Amino acid sequence: MMKKFIYGKLRFHFAIITCIATFVSLTVFSTVLYALNSYFNWDIMFSGRFYVWVFLIILSGMISAFITTYVGLQIIEPIEVLRENMTKVSAGDFTVELDPEQKVEEVSQLYRDFNLMVHELGGIDALQNNFVSTVSHEFKTPLATIQGYAQLLQDPEIDDDTQQDLSKRLIVATQQLTQLTDNILKLTKIEHQGISLERKIIRIDEQIRQALLFLQAKWEKYNISFNIILERTQFEGNEELMQQVWVNLLDNAIKYNHQDGEITITQHELEDGRIGFDISDTGIGMTPETVNKIFDKFYQADSSRLNSGNGLGLSLVKQILKLHQAEIKYKSSLGQGTTVTVILPKHTKAND
């Protein structure tokens, strides 16, 4: 009811403005005609030309009213449409979209800005909802673990070695919780808001070596040896996100390897000109079921060292590579190790 009243009031004001504009134009035209008649002594009031002038005055008034009304409606109608859709957005409907192809350029720009605003609001809303639902579901286990360690540390009868061990486990659990939070935020932002990539030329071979240095403490712990055959390879992409890819993939190759295992890192060129990077380990391998589900969010296979992850790493990796028009493939057999292949698009340059 209020909305109809507002629209009716808007139309009433516009009608008043149209009438005033028409009256003013007729008055000005008549005044000019009277002045010309007086100055030149045309005496058109008593000649056949008088009716011609009257007709022209009326016609000009009608044309003025029509043009004013038409132009005004081109603005009023889109404003009404905009108000209706703004009401929907305020009620939480972020699926609305206005057609930016309008006759008035200013209205077209207004609609484009509105669509952009709705898209951003929808992304924020989805990000918030997804984050809240995910956190409420996935934080239960790590929080329960932290609570359990904290309660054990309160036992006055535990010895120093046990206390030291529980303290280390508590630190690891909090680090995993921090990593889980970070990965959830990154993944939901990529999925629901998108990321505007800041691209630059990066060295893929150098990024892989930097990732190995970052993970040195882990692979030294398991005494893992490496066989690395990489060429100087340049790629235009987001440096931080691509570094996250190699850290995640190499971390998995280390985590699921055997003591004294091996990791081989090589690259090759495909027939269509794309560059592939293979990371092969001699670890525990995966079943076909696990390979099929490995990119599902929060999916974790049943293995001894898998509890140190959160099932988000590979989902994040796949989303990042998708942003770079790249692919990722897994080949694995249970007990025989795993090979993951990252295929970068054609504009990747090797031996440059």
From TrEMBL:
One of its GO terms (cellular component) is membrane. Its EC number is 2.7.13.3. Residues 73-126 form the HAMP domain. The keyword Transport does not apply. It holds the Pfam family HATPase_c. InterPro entries: BphY/WalK/GraS-like, HAMP_dom, HATPase_C_sf, HATPase_dom, His_kinase_dom, HisK_dim/P_dom, HisK_dim/P_sf, Sig_transdc_His_kin-like_C. This is histidine kinase.
